[in-house]
Design a protein that fits this description.
- This protein is α+β, with helices and mostly antiparallel strands and 227 residues long.
- It has a single domain, classed as Muramoyl-pentapeptide Carboxypeptidase, domain 2.
- The chain is 35% helix and 15% strand.
- The longest helix has 25 residues, at 4-28.
- The chain is globular, with a radius of gyration of 19 Å.
- The chain starts with a helix and ends in a 16-residue tail after the last strand.
């Protein structure tokens, strides 16, 4: 016998369980709220989250999660802003300086991401290859990951890459081989410049870079408005 009412309730129960579990994860992982974050940066100034565009005025922004143009198909951020820890932003500044003589620059899709947003992402797409599991959190939650691409400084247009941002296609892999040579060259150029300045590419996402010192920074759940 089928139980239609129960089948309708199961997804709701699953989401409720995930939400409760995520709250427990936040406690176990010592995710900092705004008060704990401000206390931490008073002791460790380098832990401060810095707005990227204020330190690198010419950098291009396309903050997808402040729009509906993302895999969630809804606005996740109330403001189109990008933050990262102070050393991360300094490293991005060096990347920009190296790219400029080549006529290239960076476009940022995402930086620091509050932990609560990561929980929402995992509810929608529970594939740890593409979405961080709340059990461990994301380097974005630490302010130590950036999603980005290259642009032509003359036109402001993006340089062609293997896929668009946030693609779940296998071609998005950082080392996916079966691509036109031009796309591989562009991907590898971005990778090489970022690696020189202390970043490591995520193997499943050509656009995602983690700062090498990410383990030194705690997970955060601080809204943009409180930074």
């Amino acid at each position: 016998m089928k139980y239609p009412l129960l089948s309708l309730m199961l997804p709701l129960l699953t989401l409720g369980t995930l939400s409760a579990t995520a709250q427990n994860y936040a406690k176990v992982l010592h995710v900092q709220d705004a008060a704990a974050y401000h206390q931490d940066i008073s002791k460790h100034p380098n832990h401060k989250l810095v707005e990227i565009s204020k330190v690198i005025p010419g950098i291009a922004l396309d903050i997808r999660y402040a729009t509906t143009n993302n895999f969630m198909h809804r606005r996740m951020y109330p403001q189109a802003r990008a933050f990262a820890r102070q050393p991360v932003v300094k490293a991005l500044q060096q990347v920009e300086a190296e790219l400029k003589p080549k006529g290239l620059g960076l476009k940022i899709f995402d930086g620091y991401r509050p932990y609560a947003i990561t929980v929402d992402f995992f509810r929608m797409a529970r594939d740890p290859n593409f979405v961080a599991d709340p059990k461990v959190g994301s380097k974005h939650n630490r302010g130590c990951a950036v999603d980005l691409t290259l642009i032509d400084l003359k036109t402001g247009k993006e340089i062609s890459m293997p896929t668009g941002f946030d693609s779940f296609n296998a071609k998005a892999g950082a080392n996916y081989p079966k691509l036109p040579s031009e796309l591989i060259q562009h991907r590898e150029l971005l990778k090489s410049v970022m690696q020189v300045h202390g970043f490591k590419v995520n193997r499943g996402e050509w656009w995602h870079y983690d700062f090498n010192g990410w383990k030194n920074y705690p997970l955060l759940d601080v809204p943009f408005s409180q930074l």
